[in-house]
Amino acid sequence: xxxxxxxxxxxxxxxxxxxxxxxxxxxxxxxxxxxxxxxxxxxxxxxxxxxxxxxxxxxxxxxxxxxxxxxxxxxxxxxxxxxxxxxxxxxxxxxxxxxxxxxxxxxxxxxxxxxxxxxxxxxxxxxxxxxxxxxxxxxxxxxxxxxxxxxxxxxxxxxxxxxxxxxxxxxxxxxxxxxxxxxx
Length: 184
What we know:
The protein has 184 residues and is an all-alpha fold. It folds into two domains: 2-152, no CATH class; 154-184, no CATH class. It is built from ten helices and two strands. It has a two-stranded antiparallel sheet with strand order 1-2. Strand 1 and strand 2 (6-7) form a beta hairpin. The N and C termini lie far apart (43 Å).
């Protein structure tokens, strides 16, 4: 992928792993390969501040730094307990500008130089839904008699809490079996 005049590439992360010790970035080589596409922990390590700061020392890696920063902002916008509307809009506007820039360059294609259409639309739609819900609850409007301001919990919109629960259940830990019984 291309952002401006910079390339977004996992090669910069591979180079980072070889140049710096693990205590500086917490990455391992298997974090960079797509064997397990649902490995959220690896993605979280990749877009950490530690990794971004180390990549900033490589002038050619600025596109990768921006991409990882964008991923981090998406995480913060959707998984942080305090919904950060500014962070959400920052992501949307960056994606729109990046997408428009690619469309306007006849040498580039969206399929090779941009995130997937599914990812792009997911970010756009989720941000609109969260903002709409935020405004409804902020204005203290009651959607029906069973709703209240305290029910606005965007953190729970994520699949990550569910996946943690299912991981615990699959581990067959005795406490996880009791937790599953309580949830169901």
